[in-house]
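Same chain as my last thread, 396 residues:
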Amino acid sequence: MKLKTNFALICAAFATVPAVALAAPADTVRDAAAMSPTGDYVNSGAGTPASVVSNDNINDGAFIRKDEDKISLFNDIVTINPELRLRVDSKDINANNSSTNPTPTDTHSEFNASLWFRAKLYKDWKAVLQIEPNWDLETGKMRGDHDIPMVKLYGEGTVYNFSDNASLKARVGKFGAFSSYGRIWDTEVTGGELFFDNKVLPTKIVAGRRTGNLNDNAWGIGGRRKQFATIQSTLPINENINVGATVSYMKDVDIGANQDAKNAVFGEIGTDVKFNDDWRWMAAVSKSNIKAYNDAGRKIKNDGVFTQVRYKLADWKVRNSYDIFLNYRRVGPLSGVSSVEDYSKNVQGVQIGANFVPWKDWKFNAFYLRGKQVTATVGTEKQDVNVIRGQLEYKF
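reply #2:
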């Protein structure tokens, strides 16, 4: 009853948002190797900041102004990008069971608000803050350590321009680390990042410690507050084909109960191809050097593969635009720290889903994932991993 009541309240809140939907850019295509220093994904719930439409009746000097890509305060000195998300999952996953002690199908429902604030500092340098409160609709309580969590706070900008087509950029603070295709990294970190932006071989170097809370791994791999260093690069074969690779070292990785902490090396390589305006395909593999065993003495898989094909592309600005995607994953739990797609670690299966934009700035997402565990969490029997999701997002 509490879930139904909370769900109704959130739907009513969505309904009170003005019908003059405020435009937002299309989602960043996660099929492509990510190199931009501003791409903070952190699982599939967070992505490209939202934006709003311009209002020609308000002059440029206004205290508050609506632009094509933001809400502006003090004539662009401070900008705001808000986003709302309602998500409901029905799942049979992370089974802590066996055939003699089964766990029933679970549900997970949440309401998420993401607020991005950007402030100009000097030249193209800016300070970025993201606040992301998350409300558990089943308990009626806020999730996380704080009611209004500050998930990111960093400064970024250009350090040096080598030429018109090459520059050195940097970020420092708490930001989102994302590996080439999100197979080994998609989590908050605290540290620094250097980005060698060029058309031949764009490269990114990151160092710091992991500070993100989210973890979709039954063995708890992640090493909260543990140090790491990463190098990542993309090779553009042509305008439609990229190859991306990431290598990362992490100190004292926590594997789970009854396992010693280990220093680990993670590697990821993949490719993305745009065949035409309608069809896109990507594939990536990941692996670590971690060796560990479950309670039955079976080796916990430390490699993974993920591949996806997508038809069309849902655009936040275009009403009735949509896309359909189909992917296959066999991702060992020790193959990476975190993944951009939810329910990836320790899962082998097929997922089909779609995104649909019923009105400008609104997007509906749904998927069905059917699979099994890669390594059994209990005993030798691999449990089912079946998930159905419905999600509604609004950006303004």
